[in-house]
Specification:
5 helices; alpha+beta
């Protein structure tokens, strides 16, 4: 059974299932994913299925959120992922997104990320949401700022020599 989490004007965001393995295999092996996110070593449909089970499905079971599959409402074509991640290396919940290049520049990432951010604040009750990008990922940084996050500084994870950009949104209900 497919569990829909959010719906926007043009998109449906839902839990990933192992039936999405072929799409996830394509997404995580796209050159832009490898450049900006990193090679996850997922090279077969079976590995993609395991990646979904051990990543998004497990994260949803543990935290009640994950990176959701984003599909076009009109024809259910999967176009990317967008949602939240809880990393051991970050204190706060992290918003993330990735879309196939064919769907860049059409407002899909903005539409999905805006809906996810609102969901995080209104439904999940998150008071602080962060995001990380590589220093050369200008498109993602621009989108993060457009949805309301602000550049906070550089950070480095212990297992990564590269400094990453940290963005954050502090939500105060008293505003």
């Amino acid at each position: 059974m497919i569990m829909k989490i959010l719906e926007t004007e043009r998109l449906i965001l839902r839990l990933q299932t192992t039936d999405d393995a072929k799409f996830i295999l394509e997404l995580v092996n796209d050159p832009s994913w490898i450049q900006f996110i990193g090679d996850r070593g997922v090279k077969t449909v079976e590995e993609a299925s395991s990646y979904i089970e051990n990543g998004p499905i497990r994260m949803y079971e543990q935290f009640g959120f994950c990176l959701y599959l984003v599909e076009k409402k009109e024809d259910q074509t999967p176009i990317g992922i967008c949602g939240f991640v809880k990393r051991e290396s970050l204190e706060d919940v992290d918003i993330g997104f990735a879309f196939l290049p064919d769907y860049w520049g059409k407002g899909y990432a903005y539409e999905a990320a805006s809906a996810v951010l609102a969901y995080g604040i209104d439904t999940l009750g998150l008071n602080r949401i962060v995001a990380i990008t590589t220093q050369d990922n200008h498109a993602s940084a621009k989108l993060l700022e457009r949805i309301g996050l602000q550049f906070e500084g550089l950070l480095q994870f212990s297992n990564d020599p590269e400094d990453l950009r940290l963005f954050s949104l502090n939500y105060d209900e008293s505003k």
